[in-house]
Amino acid sequence: MARKAKRGKRYNRNGPDSVKGFKKAVRDVIKDYRSGKIKRSTARNYLLRLYHMTYKKNNSKIRHLSNSTLIRLRAEIKEVMNKV
């Protein structure tokens, strides 16, 4: 009998448009990883996708954010990725 796979939430479908949105997405990924809903590799993939979405060329919805804010956000996401 096949085992039913656990599914996490759908992350970053269109890309967050604010720093708060990015941080919420990171918290959700970590929460699902710790609860066992998603594997480590899946969590890292979601975090890597979020990291790439912090570049203005990949996400047109963040044009209003300053570069220094985006650099800090990238550093935070990288730190979380290293802890996972």
Distance between the termini: 32 Å
What's the rounded overall pLDDT mean? 85
Rg, nearest Å: 14 Å
The total tally of domains equals 1
Helix-strand makeup class: mainly alpha
> What is the percentage of strand-forming residues?
under 5%
What is the tally of helical segments? Answer: 3
Low-confidence stretches: 1-6
Order of helices and strands: HHH
Main sheet properties: none
- The backbone outline, from C-alpha atoms, is elongated
Strand and helix layout:
Elements: H1 19-35, H2 40-52, H3 67-83
Helix pairs in contact: 1-2, 1-3, 2-3
Question: Would you give an account of this structure?
Answer:
- The protein has one domain (19-83).
- The N and C termini lie far apart (32 Å).
- The chain has three helices and no strands.
- It is 56% helix and 0% strand.
- With 84 residues, it is mainly alpha-helical.
Note the main attributes of this structure:
about 80 residues, mainly alpha, 3 helices, about 55% helix, about 0% strand
Put the structure in a nutshell.
This protein is mainly alpha-helical and 84 residues long.
